[in-house]
Design brief:
This protein has two helices and eleven strands. The protein is mainly beta and 143 residues long.
Length: 143
């Protein structure tokens, strides 16, 4: 399994690379009235208007302004595409699935996290992109 590693609020997280289209420098978003609190707005990505998920808000972390060094990780789940705002993109790493700890085995109701990985003193939490992106589709639950 190939994982794109990034940081959000100095914590290391990962995205399954099979759902990642690319990482781009963050750009200004167009606000959406009455959008869920975890939706920062929308951007034009190659002619397609896509939502930008404020991962800080979604994770219950302190809010902050978008910075010039921040990134959007463009992810696809089926037909749905979204940009996920992260602080920094680090690298792509390969892990065997046997090295990953299912998040449900750590704490119940960790809907946004699918796996955890321990490397030395560092713990990486790997997002469940299906849950994050499906929360943006009309008619599904919100996070």
């Amino acid at each position: 399994m190939h994982i794109l590693l990034c940081t959000i609020n100095n914590q290391r997280y990962g995205f399954d690379l099979q759902n990642v289209e690319r990482s781009i420098l963050a750009v200004e978003c167009t606000s959406l009235p009455q959008a869920p609190t975890h939706v920062l707005g929308v951007i034009n990505f190659h002619g397609q208007v896509i939502p930008v998920v404020n991962m800080h808000s979604l994770l219950g972390l302190p809010s902050r302004d978008l910075g010039v060094d921040d990134h959007f990780v463009i992810c696809r789940q089926g037909e749905q595409v979204a940009a996920l705002w992260v602080d920094h993109v680090q690298q792509v790493r390969s892990y065997e699935e046997s090295q990953l700890i299912p998040a449900k085995g750590i704490v119940a109701n960790m809907d946004l996290i699918r796996w955890a990985f321990k490397e030395g003193d560092t713990i990486t939490l790997i997002f469940d992109l299906e849950k994050i992106i499906s929360s943006l589709v009309v008619g599904t639950r919100s996070c």
